[in-house]
């Protein structure tokens, strides 16, 4: 096992991100590698979002995507829009490294906290968040 390192995403990571997304949810297959590449370009050039990847032995094994947002009733927050760790690398500290990196970036940049959604079936993920001080909220979603 090589050392894990975290860095900002690069457009060249698109294939690895595509594969991570597919492993996380096979139903995402219609969203092509080219579309992932385009999204990385748009997000990194046109938004204030931050995406960190974790790599080991020059392989991207996880990523976390944070998006700053403003509210009329609270200080600025960062919404975690994507957080995936390769299945074979889970429970080895990768998620902790990634979420701590994003939390540190958020604190350094003046955000008051972070928020995220997690599917009700992801019990292990819920415990991961709760151990890190995240509080449970009920969320609703409507798809069009």
UniProtKB/TrEMBL annotation:
Which segments constitute the N-acetyltransferase domain? 4-144
The source's domain of life comes to: Bacteria
Q: Name one Pfam family in it.
A: Acetyltransf_1
Is Hydrolase one of the keywords UniProt gives this record?
Answer: no
Q: Which Gene3D superfamilies match?
A: 3.40.630.30
What are the protein's UniProt keywords? Acyltransferase, Transferase
Keyword Acyltransferase attributed: yes
Q: Which residues cross the membrane?
A: none
| Molecular function as annotated in GO | acyltransferase activity, transferring groups other than amino-acyl groups
> Per its UniProt record, what PANTHER family does this chain match?
AMINOALKYLPHOSPHONATE N-ACETYLTRANSFERASE-RELATED, AMINOALKYLPHOSPHONATE N-ACETYLTRANSFERASE-RELATED-RELATED
Annotated protein name in UniProt: Histone acetyltransferase
Look up and give the organism this protein is from: Brevibacillus formosus
